[in-house]
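Handout, tutorial session.
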Amino acid sequence: MNVSHEISLLVEEIQRLGCKNDKGQTSVKFGVLFSDDRCANIFEALVGTLKAAKKQKIIDFQGELLLQGVHDNVDVVLLKE
């Protein structure tokens, strides 16, 4: 899969798993994304896809890198629906 296709799949999964925040943006906790079975089957490298999507300003999250366990409660916010 190419990066743009993986990012579009990521957007779909954030919309499926997330909910609207107070700014009207769709948001999901990293731990929810990481532990979801469907996401595990789609993404070989979820963290890499998240980083690429953040670089393209499609999503945003606190920090540079998200790690399972440590960052489970970090919000991944969809900037472009």
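The second record follows below. Compare its token runs with those of the first.
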Amino acid sequence: KNQVEQSPQSLIILEGKNCTLQCNYTVSPFNNLRWYKQDTGRGPVSLTIMTFSENTKSNGRYTATLDADTKQSSLHITASQLSDSASYICVVSALCSTGT
């Protein structure tokens, strides 16, 4: 059964501090993992897309890590700002195989 779980469910931190969000998944075969930021009342915005071979990817103050062996990813936010207040979504895509 393919599952994706994020933690913590909610997080309150002081402005200027760092924080880390976790994503664990059981999706197999794995294609890619994406982190999105969704502001209230708006659609999700892609922060990063990671494939099996990528361990770390940065986008400004956001750094995502991926460990495909343990099937977990983290999103690290450096020097948080008020504008970081949002929902963060981890999406894992399965690799679709077609029969020959």
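Points raised in discussion: The chain has a mean pLDDT of 92.
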